[in-house]
Design goal:
By secondary structure, the protein is mostly helical. The chain is built from 19 helices and no strands. The protein has one domain. The longest helix is centred in the N-terminal third of the chain and has 29 residues. The chain is globular.
Length: 357
Amino acid sequence: MGHTMFRRLLPQASPLPGLALALLCGLAAMALATLPPFPQLHLGGLTLAIVLGLLVGKLVLEPSTAAGRRDRRLGPACAPGLAVAQRQWLRAGVVLYGLRLDLGDVLALGAPVLLLDATIVVGTLALGLWIGRRWLRLDRQTVLLTAAGSAICGAAAVLATERSLRAQPHKVAIAVATVVVFGTLNIFLYPLLQQWTGLEPRLFGVYTGATVHEVAQVVAIGQQVGGEAADTAVVVKLARVLLLVPFLLWLGWSDRRRERGRAADAGPGGVLASVPWFALGFVAMTVANTWLPIPAALRDALLVLDTVLLAAAMAALGVGTRVSSLKVAGPRPLALAGLLFLFLTLGGYGLTVWLLG
């Protein structure tokens, strides 16, 4: 009775139930990420958020064979809020992510390192599109999401790319899963590679930052390697994160051109429509973090808010994903991510030695 009265007090299409669900899942995932064994496995809040979202979507919202009423009660009630979390909260999270970067540190790396980052990112994206579309016959959205996660900055790049592509939640979940699988493998592999390759510390740090998927994974490797290699790896990785912006700009222009047939048909309004404004907000936050005197307490608070927004958005995407759709995708996205992993590990080593060694 009280449950029914509460529902009547809400507007017909209120986003509150879905937002509350996404926020609770995101906060729960962030809390779980601090408990054993997740820190030891280097599984962060974003990764756990999409897993928790998948479980909630399966157990709470998806209709069961015994009682199909659950989906009719909860699914439509949560849908508006989940959509807001997947779109507006995700965009805000990507914008605030720029506060993690400092352009001064990036520019101090020098032209050869920045060229290496750009070559790795462009090469991984191009190879991903070629293999994924021509060899594996995957759809364009799955290929771009998987390639962006491998090439740029893991789950954060997948989420930002999803916002431009408006991809289905299950494709996002698959792309994030591939980042987790091969990024986790990197954490155990790269400390061994330092011994096998014999690269001096700074050069190994450049190699790590230019080829490992996630910022958190780079930090985890740095903790094992230590010293100059760890510090260099993080800065090189953050320079790679900045390349998310030109990639999103290209993606917006490319999609607009596909819709119109040719860019000239779009006119000035079409060019503006192709700009992902949240990417420019990301740049603005990076510039502000570099040159404006932002109080440390305010910056720390905004970074916590950023993590919460991204975790809630990831949870919302997980809730909207059906496990059956993951099964339909099959092993091909994992095969694509595996081939890109080999390119990053082997090809990235060759490029690092060629350009800097």
